[in-house]
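Hi everyone, sorry if this is the wrong subforum. Our group has a chain we'd like a structural model of before ordering constructs, and none of us has done structure prediction before. Sequence below.
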Amino acid sequence: MSFAFIDLASQQNRIRENIDQKIAAVLNHGQYIMGPEVSELETALSKRVATNHVISCGSGTDALLLALMGLKLKPRQGVIVPSFTFTASAEVMPLLGAIPIFAEVDEETFTMDPARLADALESAIDANIEVVGIMAVGLFGQPAQMDKINAFAKSNGLWVLDDAAQSFGTEYQGSKTGALAEVTCTSFFPAKPLGCYGDGGALFTQDDEIAEIARSCRVHGQGIHKYHTERLGMTARLDTMQAAILLAKLDIFDEELKLREKVSKNYHNLLSDWIKTPVCNQGSTSSWAIYTLTLPKSVDRQHMQEKLNIKGVPTAIYYPIPMHLQKPYSHFPRAKYGLEVSERLAQSVLSIPMHPYLTSQEQETISSAIIQIIKDGNNN
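Answer:
Right subforum, don't worry. Here is the predicted structure as tokens:
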């Protein structure tokens, strides 16, 4: 028996008729770029989050770039970002000539540790870098501690960008992700809780000027018409077909989030006596985009993966090397007192199957396999 790590097939079977109808509508009207489904999606997302502006785009990385352009990030300015994250969070600053300042994460929740932000800021100041903002990252499905991060930012004159590539659909202290910072970005990569069948992303903001710049930069810096260029930009539009697919998926998104929550609770009940299961920040919900365990030192991760693979249980490591130890980023500043938590997590995390259609029986089989490996290891 083998298990799906992320089961897109079951989801597609459930909504195939709706997807086919929406794709057929696009084929019929033929507006493949910026067709009516794009604005329909942006309106639906805006209503969902209660934010003034939603700018769809070609990927989550495009969303981050557009956000930084909208925030007027300049070369040689610094942005604080966690080291324990996907490379997209860090790469967008150097692409614009700016500098990522790597900060520490909280060991319990994997998200940026507000108590360690001062360490990162101090390192930047020592390096004579003007820090202008913070990029918080909602990792594995839950937002960071945005109230504390926003408070730190305000006291130091910094803006906050929420990288919600994995955490869209959640809430933090009663506010929806998308409205927790000056700008929020998300990804619609197929593996995300709300994903299309290609690349896609979106930017959320209440700020009119940021939205104007982002919309312009999305289409080569377009001004008053197609052939009037106001500023340097890029091509970063979400194509109409992907917007149509997202509209079909949006219809069942809330239900799938509830199913993910049910799966996460079941995993916790099955595994928490044997291994460290993920926890949420206080006041936070999670989309459970990825279900990540933290292995004790007594458990060899490679051995665990090999044994689970034999039993048909796929696993993944998010992320095996923190950003500050990666070649392209090793010369950038990092928190003054080290990033030992990020380095430790990189050696101990292991993600297991997570999707809305994972049955209780499948979870019991997966959990039993994990527990048996732990038992066998303890008996050796």
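For your construct planning: The mean pLDDT is 97. The first helix runs from residue 8 to 29.
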